[in-house]
Amino acid sequence: MSKCPADFNFFDQQVLNCPYEFYRTLQEQAPVYHLPGTNIYMVTRHADIKKLLKDTEVYSNNFNHLLKGPEPAPEVTAIYAQAWQPVDTLITADPPRHKTYRTLVNKVFNAKRVDAMEDYMTAIVHELIDSFIARGECDFVRDFTTPLPVYVIADQLGVPRADLTAFKRWSDSFARRLSQMATPEEQLEDARNIVEFQMYFADMIARRRADPRDDMISDLVTTEIEDPDNGEIRPLNMEELQSLLQQLLVAGNETTTSALTGGMVSLIQNPAQLKELQEHPEKIPNAVEEILRMESPSAGMWRVVKKDSDVHGVSIPKDSLLMLRYHAANRDRALFTDPNALDIDRANAEEHIAFGQGVHFCPGAMLARKEMTVALRALLARLENFQLIEEKSDLGYWPNIVLRGLKEVHIRFSAR
Q1: SS3 readout for 180-204
Q2: CATH architecture of the domain with range 61-298+354-415
Q3: Burial class of 322 by CB neighbour count within 10 A (0 to 12, 13 to 18, 19+)
Q4: All structural domains of the chain with their residue ranges
Q5: Burial class (CB in 10 A: 0-12, 13-18, 19+), 385
Q6: DSSP 118-155
Q7: Has this prediction a pTM greater than 0.90?
Q8: In this predicted model, what pLDDT tens digit does every residue of 33-67 receive, in sequence order?
């Protein structure tokens, strides 16, 4: 007997770990689904999400209020009150305000700059592989997929690699806050980490104002913008700088870590595909698109409904929330044949929406693609006979409805 949407609890960890039956059920029976007991409407079809992403007037990105979570404890609020409050810049800003900050970040992540980084990324990748190749095994997340994007974004921002551990801790707290699934104890820990992040970068910003260098923080503190509210030309204020740096930090590492980790697991679990990729490394760019489609590390994104609307005959009241489920859209049978199978030769793999669409298309997409391509090229050139060390691994996903990443992956290999 076939299941219906009510048979699933989206917030259950088992469903988050393996949501594919749930996604198919929704796409076939309820493409716009009101999650029971909430004001959230989940959209799962690829074509619908692409259409809704274009309508920024009705479906707003201004979900900053969600980041506070449901009625935070007084001690959590008190910690956040010690630092700078969130402002709408990139991810939570709508046009025309969004354009001011997007134009700025586009200059930082332009194609010329990213292409020029390839040799530098390659050197980092080989340095990381050198650190574990002799052991014949590694903690893939700790030893490779975490440090690679964190080193890259830290170097570009202009902060010391020695602070890698703090970077990762801060980034994890931002990601967990976005998840809306933190426990009270975790909310307290996240508040402390986020305020610590702000104080660290306030000091870094002051140093760069006094002594600019060739790095992203210097670019941000020395540039001027047209104020989105009154049109005046002015430097970025501290709230704007903190907001942009926070987003660069999280977007610059969490998603790439998750995509590379999930991609390697999928390749190991599909040895014929892995062998084909090792024998034909020219297929790596398309394999990267297929991995992004399969893994969708930004599994979904919020939109706030600004006025009563109707999608597929479902009435959605003003002030409701949409969960645009990119992860489901990238497994949509209407577009992708056999969508739950890894196919490095998939002709339309790049039609995925892992980076979103429209004005909020991820500005770091080029950087993420470059990191993944360079990483896979080096890993597959230097290592072979990959195996998962299942007794050491935890192939469950972190409890997060926005970001999707595996907890712990250990692999065994031999040098080629």
Answers
A1: CCCCHHHHHHHHHHHHHHHHHHHHH
A2: Orthogonal Bundle (1.10)
A3: buried
A4: 61-298+354-415
A5: exposed
A6: HHHHHHHHHHHHHHHGGGTEEEHIIIIITHHHHHHHHH
A7: yes
A8: 999 999 999 999 999 999 999 999 999 999 877 66
